[in-house]
């Protein structure tokens, strides 16, 4: 089993080759303006190191910030038609109502609200007004809108109205790129709808980006399937991932945590990922990051979908240091470290300079930081440790000491002993943990639907079969599939013992034939 | 009669302050605030008036939403539906309300009367009937005052209109209205029993919208200046700082339509080494420091994010949060024997004699 994992970060594009469970090679290349070139460069440099050669690669897994950056930077976004099923409810808060003005102006192509939707117990709220959906689709077509976000009240419970509306829209606009909110989310209409609208806005970018990734892989001479890493630490085959780009929003952070688990061999631990500007703290449960259960803002838009629960603080290898009074971060020189850091001839004192002065890092010119005395350096390390301790403590879900895995390029700031931590673990290749996490990602399949006229046990088994088939269709090895989530909820008001079952399975990527 | 027009900024502050006065419950005012932002953008405005400016013979409509928070996340609070609950009541009693009023200043219902008032072009009285949030309809000043518990209107966004015409007690009003609400899909816009100007003047809890705005403005100003927002609240309200600590355990259970549970804290700063426990039933009910009950309903127990100063709700509080706990003085109407019977610790099942943080 040979896989290449690539993580495209703000500063570096990291790539690793994993062979039979071991990291064989890790490279770093600067992230390029267009992202894609950086990926091609890192693939090439991995290939040039001689370990890839003519060996077969089973998969290339890419984690990318391309989509979240498009939202944050307001670039490459399509105009979206918002179609909400749920009238007459919620009429005073229409789609886009809580978006930042600048982003709404870019993305809002039009808003249509028609009757439909369900109740919390599965009863229909209103029958779907199919004629109104078709009329809306005709108006969208006349306006030249192709990207459509469909949302419906309580669609996570019963997505049938969204699905039917999608069929009706496709009948009018055959090349429509439709996102149904039930594919993305949980209870919380505005937040789920927002995620769907963002996803629809990224439809064209997603298609182009993934086509460019595929081209990069072809040009590098690899004949491996392309997978895109997801927020939840799994991968989806490129053609599937293309449909739901928002599922890749937080994959960088997730990959770091999954990589930390893999490199350390621990499945339950805290992870601290110290980058150049920020430090992310999260918690691993059974090898996966704990998920946030609250609203997550993306580019100023409130959303609610599966993201790792992370606390970010302004501490990193590029953090500004003030000695009197003592202050570390939150400002950072970021990717300009090699120009602006004192040890590199610049004038801004950073945590990296302190590490160089103390002999912790061999970088730049130690003579340039010789004026920093040992006591001052110790104080800076102590302050960094205090910031890390507080962040770790905030993210712990139970009292008592827990192991901590320190990864990322700035992990030198994390000392061997910290309050609330039983053991600090530094791992080899920890600075490429994100690319490692991408390389080892598994494939998931999910089933979330309502079953009728079945016992609870039969319904859960039926849901698991569907989830397994979907995982295999996404590239998983059937023999390795495991159920990692299973929940069921009886819907008292629906006829015939209806039960809603959600099952999620994960498995290893199948070896290519 | 002097009216004061609320600015968009006042309403932003009101949402923050109402959430503080929610004492852990009442629902986050975010969606009502969002409604108000849109209404103001469309040119609607809301006027605030003092209860003392009401004529004794005036009629006042009390506005509130009822329902499950989960449903409110999908069937979003709708301004025209709230207005309709008021219109249905006016049609039923054959009188026009001179003004509207909040039932519950704490939480989302602290902002909702403004949504109805914007459409109906009536002023909002600067008073409510709880001075905070409470889980049940009989936990109000008008219930303590023994005022009539009916009629009540409950409307659904699809056009359904129900009237609870006659019930003997506030508890019955709560039970019957709750049933209607569940059939609607566990959300209903209600107009509570109509009050006369004289009743509002005698039994209303006064100045609470202004108070919520002042609290919210203090918090927001402190956030802008990077000052201590909790100190800012205590500079505008005669409250007491009870504790600063970190959440170390949250136990919740949903029973009989309420969210009950207990949160445990470890002390920080001056309270290092001292433990706090707070019991809740939607709202924070009793706070214990080192096993001594130091604050209890009807004193307002407010758990605030130590950094932002914004309220932390019992539904969303979680391990690791740094919080500051303060107490604010209770409305005097709840300190009488009848008041304590309705909302004192025993009304929530705690065998404690009420002792106020503010009595010593």
What does this structure look like?
The complex is a heterodimer of chains A (513) and B (360). The mean pLDDT of chain A is 87. Among the domains of chain A are: 80-201, 3-Layer(aba) Sandwich (Rossmann fold); 441-507. Chain A has helices at residues 36-48, 66-72, 101-107, 130-142, 160-172, 189-201, 203-219, 238-241, 251-264, 337-340, 351-357, 374-395, 433-439, 456-473; strands at 2-8, 12-19, 22-30, 59-64, 80-87, 108-115, 147-152, 177-180, 226-229, 234-237, 269-274, 279-285, 288-289, 296-298, 301-303, 311-313, 319-323, 326-332, 402-407, 421-426, 442-451, 482-490, 499-507. Chain A contains 14 helices and 23 strands. Chain A has 513 residues and is an alpha/beta fold. The termini of chain A are close together. In chain A, the strands form 5 sheets. Chain A has a 9-stranded mixed beta sheet, with helices on both faces. In chain A, strands 11, 12, 13, 16, 19 and 20 form a 6-stranded mixed beta sheet that branches. With 360 residues, chain B is of the alpha+beta class. Chain B has 2 domains: 3-206, CV3147-like domain (CV3147-like fold); 238-348, CV3147-like (Beta Barrel). Chain B is built from 11 helices and 17 strands. Chain B has a 7-stranded antiparallel beta sheet with strand order 15-14-13-12-11-17-16, with no helix packed on it. Chain B has a 5-stranded mixed beta sheet with strand order 4-3-9-7-8, sandwiched between helices. In chain B, a hairpin with a 2-residue loop joins β11 and β12 (258-267). In chain B, α1 (8-21) runs antiparallel to α2 (30-41), α1 (8-21) crosses α9 (208-225) and α2 runs parallel beside α5. The radius of gyration of chain B is 19 Å and the shape is globular. In chain B, 57% of the residues are buried. Chain A binds chain B through residues 86, 88-93, 97-98, 119-121, 123, 125-126, 153-154, 187-190, 294, 393-399, and chain B through 31, 34-35, 38-39, 68, 70-71, 73-80, 115, 157-159, 185-186, 246, 248-249, 316, 319-322.
């Amino acid at each position: 089993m040979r896989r290449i994992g690539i993580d495209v970060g703000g500063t570096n594009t990291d790539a690793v080759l994993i062979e039979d469970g071991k990291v064989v090679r890790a490279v770093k290349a600067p992230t390029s303006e267009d992202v894609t070139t950086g990926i091609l460069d890192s693939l090439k440099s991995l290939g040039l190191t001689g370990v890839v050669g003519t060996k077969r690669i089973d998969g290339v897994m890419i984690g990318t910030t391309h989509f979240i950056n498009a939202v944050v930077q307001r670039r490459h976004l399509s105009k979206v038609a918002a179609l909400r099923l749920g009238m007459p409810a919620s009429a005073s808060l229409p789609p886009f109502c809580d978006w930042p003005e600048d982003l709404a102006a870019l993305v809002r192509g039009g808003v249509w609200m028609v009757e439909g939707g369900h109740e919390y117990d599965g009863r229909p709220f209103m029958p779907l007004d199919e004629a109104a959906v078709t009329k809306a689709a005709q108006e969208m077509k006349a306006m030249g809108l192709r990207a459509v976000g469909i949302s419906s009240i309580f669609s996570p419970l019963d997505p049938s109205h969204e699905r039917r509306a999608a069929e009706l829209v496709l009948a009018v606009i055959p090349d429509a790129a439709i996102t149904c909110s039930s594919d993305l989310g949980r209870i919380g209409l505005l937040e789920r709808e927002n995620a769907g609208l963002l996803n629809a806005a990224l439809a064209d970018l997603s298609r182009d980006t993934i086509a460019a990734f595929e081209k990069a892989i072809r040009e590098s001479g690899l004949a491996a399937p392309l997978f895109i890493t997801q927020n939840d630490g799994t991968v989806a085959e490129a053609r599937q991932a293309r449909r739901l780009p928002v599922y890749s929003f937080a994959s960088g952070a997730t990959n770091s945590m999954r990589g930390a688990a893999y490199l350390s061999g621990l499945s339950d631990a805290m992870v601290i990922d110290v980058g150049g500007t920020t430090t992310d703290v999260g918690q691993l449960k059974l090898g996966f990051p704990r998920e946030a259960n609250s609203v997550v803002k993306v580019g100023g838009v409130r959303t609610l979908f599966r993201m790792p629960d992370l606390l970010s603080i302004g501490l990193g290898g590029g953090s500004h240091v003030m000695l009197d009074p003592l202050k570390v971060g939150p400002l950072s020189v970021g990717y300009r470290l090699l120009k602006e850091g004192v040890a590199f001839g610049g004038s801004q004192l950073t945590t990296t300079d302190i590490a160089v002065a103390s002999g912790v890092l061999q970088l730049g010119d130690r003579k340039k930081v010789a004026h920093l005395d040992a006591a001052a350096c110790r104080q800076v390390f102590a302050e960094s440790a205090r910031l890390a301790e507080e962040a770790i403590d905030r993210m712990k879900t139970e009292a008592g000491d827990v192991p901590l895995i320190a990864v990322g390029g700035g992990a030198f700031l994390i000392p061997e002993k910290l309050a609330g931590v039983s053991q600090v673990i530094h791992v080899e290749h920890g600075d490429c943990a994100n690319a490692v996490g991408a390389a080892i990602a598994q494939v998931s399949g999910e089933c979330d639907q309502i079953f009728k006229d079945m016992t609870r046990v039969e319904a859960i088994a039926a849901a698991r079969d569907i989830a397994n088939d979907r995982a295999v269709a996404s590239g998983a090895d059937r023999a390795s599939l495991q159920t990692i989530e299973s929940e069921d909820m009886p819907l008292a008001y629906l006829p015939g013992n209806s039960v809603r079952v959600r099952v999620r399975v994960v498995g290893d990527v199948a070896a290519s034939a | 009669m002097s009216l004061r027009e609320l600015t968009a900024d006042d309403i932003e502050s009101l949402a923050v302050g109402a959430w503080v006065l929610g004492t852990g419950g009442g629902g986050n005012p975010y969606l009502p605030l969002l409604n108000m932002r849109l209404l103001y953008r469309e040119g609607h405005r809301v006027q605030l008036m003092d209860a003392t400016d009401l004529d004794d013979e005036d009629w006042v409509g009390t506005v509130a939403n009822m329902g499950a928070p989960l449903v409110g996340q999908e069937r979003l609070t709708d301004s025209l539906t709230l207005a309709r609950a008021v219109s249905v009541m006016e049609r039923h009693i054959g009188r026009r309300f001179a003004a509207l009023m909040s039932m519950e200043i704490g939480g989302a219902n602290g902002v909702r009367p403004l949504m109805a008032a914007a459409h109906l072009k009536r002023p909002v009285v600067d008073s409510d009937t709880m001075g905070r949030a409470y889980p049940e309809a009989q936990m109000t000043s008008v219930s303590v005052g023994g005022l009539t518990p009916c009629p009540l209107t409950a409307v659904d966004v699809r056009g359904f209109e129900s009237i609870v015409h006659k019930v003997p007690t506030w508890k019955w009003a709560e039970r019957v209205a709750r049933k209607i609400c569940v059939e609607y899909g566990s959300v209903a816009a209600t107009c509570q029993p109509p009050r006369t100007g004289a009743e509002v003047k005698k039994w209303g809890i006064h100045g609470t919208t202004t108070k919520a705005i002042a609290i919210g403005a203090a918090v927001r100003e402190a956030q802008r200046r990077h000052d201590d927002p909790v100190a800012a609240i205590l500079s505008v309200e005669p409250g007491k700082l009870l504790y600063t600590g970190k959440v170390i355990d949250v136990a919740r259970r949903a029973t009989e339509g309420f969210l009950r549970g207990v949160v445990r804290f470890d002390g920080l700063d001056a309270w290092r080494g001292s433990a706090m426990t707070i019991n809740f039933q939607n709202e924070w009910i009793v706070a214990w420091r080192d096993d001594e009950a130091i604050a209890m309903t009807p004193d307002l127990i407010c758990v605030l994010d130590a950094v932002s100063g914004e309220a932390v709700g019992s539904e969303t509080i979680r391990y690791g949060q740094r919080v500051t706990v303060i107490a604010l003085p209770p409305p005097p109407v709840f300190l009488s024997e009848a008041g304590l019977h309705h909302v004192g610790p025993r009304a929530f099942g705690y065998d404690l004699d009420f002792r106020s943080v503010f009595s010593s």
